[in-house]
Amino acid sequence: MSDTPVVTRFAPSPTGFLHIGGARTALFNWLYARGRGGKFLLRIEDTDRERSTPEATEAILKGLTWLGLDWDGEPVSQFARADRHMQVVQQMLDAGSAYKCFATQDEIEAFREAARAEGRSTLYRSPWRDSGVASHPDAPYVVRVKAPLEGDTIIHDQVQGDVRIRNDQLDDMVLLRSDGSPTYMLAVVVDDHDMGVTHVIRGDDHLNNAARQMLVYTAMGWDVPVWAHIPLIHGPDGKKLSKRHGALGVEEYQLMGYPAAAMRNYLARLGWSHGDDEFFNDSQAQEWFDLTGIGKSPARLDFKKLDHLTGQHMSAADNAALLHELQAYRAAKGFEPMSGTRSAALLQAMPLVKEKAKGFDQLLDKAYFILSDRPLVLDEKAAKALDDASRGILKELTPRLQTATWSRIELEEIVGALAQEHGLGLGKLAQPLRAALAGRMASPSVFDMMVVLGREETLARIADATT
């Protein structure tokens, strides 16, 4: 299989949002394929008709799109391939690797109750396996695979190592239900084979499924894919991730203001490592990612690390790209679109407001000075900074600013000279000036704000604050 182009897949069930664990599985598959010039495919496993919804499918596609994980071709519907799944079952029946089982649910349960009472294994062995009976008038039946009764099945897993399972622990799993519908365990194998999947990278809760699915691969004479079963994600307390740990769905992370690049970086490091590298971009991740770097132990969600990486990515991001994603964040939150003038102003201010911001909410807080209309609404700290004395000094500042060339260096010299005349440190005058320009005390440098706002707007805001 070494000469075969790499094909990976992500195969979620559309029964809810895109879980953060599922997003990481998709990311690992995407990185592995993209880093090797292969294909990353998407399959929607929608055979559970009662729980599968179009809305959930749309949420999954939307989550993957936000995360920046593009897939090749159209998403495949597992339900739509039922005829192909049944065709494979017929081939297995014809070859004798599967059989019709006419046992009723009552008979199976009676067997298991007796086994439990006698302390025997409850693994059901159908009396129809070697009966030679191909039909039973008017009786419903399921189709089962013929599992080997002796020896071992070995899962050669790239993460877990070789996992050996005794064949006498494998049941003759059902391939086709009594209503004629194919089971998930069959459909997964047929779909992976037909889609040309070479590497199955998925959660280790599917590890035991691999041994049972290999029965179908073997029966059909198909190549078994490379297995890589990755540990699940746990909460900070080491317990299985649940609602009590916070956000579970990818869309929640978008609404919390995390940029997609930071999420990709963080999720890649959640269970995989490349030396001591913590902060990296997509190109590096695709180049470095391999299955040997995945650990065997469950990864723990750590919001402090996510926040730290977010700050690094926002600082390093292209300003125009960051503005584009910020506008998508605002749209997701239900905010009105920005005007072209305001977007242009924010783009100019982006180098100031993105520094040390650990999310779009913090960035917007710092950008309040550029996004707010006059007269500014002062927060409590800003209002306290603008007392009568400071207002008087700001009035003195106005005529000096009217003749300035409006360079940052000159603005700092003008404000510094006025502060010195009043026996104040620069910071003492900068505080009321900050309140006048931003309406709050958390903002970029006053001189940077003055440059971005321009002379007319700066003087107008000072006038608002001193009258």
What does this entry look like structurally?
- Among the domains are: 81-230, HUPs (Rossmann fold); 318-371; 380-466, Orthogonal Bundle (Arc Repressor Mutant, subunit A), CATH 1.10.10.350.
- Strand 6 and strand 7 (161-166) form a beta hairpin.
- It has 467 residues and is mainly α.
- Helix 3 crosses helix 5 (184-194), helix 16 (388-402) crosses helix 19 (446-466) and helix 18 (426-438) packs across helix 19.
- It is elongated.
- Helices cover 49% and strands 10% of the residues.
- It has helices at 20-34, 54-67, 82-95, 105-118, 184-194, 207-220, 250-255, 260-269, 282-288, 303-316, 319-333, 340-353, 360-366, 368-371, 380-385, 388-402, 408-421, 426-438, 446-466; strands spanning 7-10, 39-44, 76-77, 98-101, 142-145, 152-157, 161-166, 174-176, 199-203, 226-230, 233-234, 299-300.
- The N and C termini lie far apart (78 Å).
- The longest helix has 21 residues, at 446-466.
- 35% of the residues are buried.
- It catalyses: tRNA(Glu) + L-glutamate + ATP = L-glutamyl-tRNA(Glu) + AMP + diphosphate.
